[in-house]
Amino acid sequence: MYKSVETLLVDIPTIRPHKLSVATMQTQTLVLVKITATDGTVGWGEATTIGGLSYGEESPESVKANIDTYFAPLLSSVQNQNIAQISKLIRKTINGNRFAKCAIQTALLDIQAKRLSLPLSEILGGRLRDRLPVLWTLASGDTDKDIAEAKKMIELKRHNTFKLKIGARPLQEDVDHVIAIKKALGPEVSIRVDINRAWTELECIRGIQQLQDGGIDLIEQPCAIQNTDALARLTQRFEVAIMADEALTGPDSAFRIAQKHGADVFAVKVEQSGGLIEACDVAKIACLAGIDLYGGTMLEGPVGTIASAHAFSTFENLAFGTELFGPLLLTQEILTTPLQYENFELVVPNAPGLGIEVDENKIEQLRR
Ligand code: MUC
Ligand code: MG
User: Its pathway (predicted)?
Assistant: First the structure.
């Protein structure tokens, strides 16, 4: 049923250094998966991560090795095109590897939706919206540059909500940087922070108190991934919304965190969840537990970004919007027609499958 599974590593410089507590990115390595079915239909998926092995448990190189060695032979042996059955077989045969699983599942869903002549969102249950609000991350590391960048984004009608990456510098320096940006942009502009698990619980208490007093709207993954008890205590302690990001590693962890109301908001990421279907499961668990949703990114290029958009378009509650700006951080376009960003939103395509056309000549030039 599937003729070939190819994994392509494509290194693209970013428009500026992107500084997180765990890494500074100058380049993003897109991990693209192309599956060709025996009838010739092609599907695309993406397993991009951030900063090699510094963010997630899979690196671009490990994803490629594991797909070539384990996923590809498994897919060449399947005799049907039933995605539920193939996903079950993959889960049974392959442990972990959520990013790789997501890329494979996305490509299979792209093929299936193309065969049915439906946008991918429609085989995930159906979209509730055609456009998604998209924020921008300010992560140059320089307060004045970040303020200028934010003002430009508002003027261009590209983004009017901003997330700041903090946690790399001493706590007070980071907090002062955030408050200075909030003051410069004013009360109308929503400012959020992502600490990427850099603070101890005590630092969280000190830092979040000041951020809450300074009018910040959302605090993302402030403490260690495994310390979900601390995350729950912070959620109970503060009025400002606390969001789980790295702590969410799929429906199981979502269920465990939801059971103790361990966060006010879930950052749903399709790769972290292990697939688009699993991301929808995470969203459903959040909904049932009264937890708000935010559509997260692994800073994927256009393939993973639009796959995420199809999944997020089906969510009932998307109270905190999305951060699907990954392609805008890259200096090179790999689609024949770029994704449509306008009026602070990303448009979810209506064409069959993912609804995009990958520029294969461009990828051939750029791939490792
Ligand atoms: C993260 O942890 O949220 C998403 C946006 C961004 O700037 O970094 C990523 C990772
Ligand atoms: Mg985050």
Answer: Aromatic compound metabolism
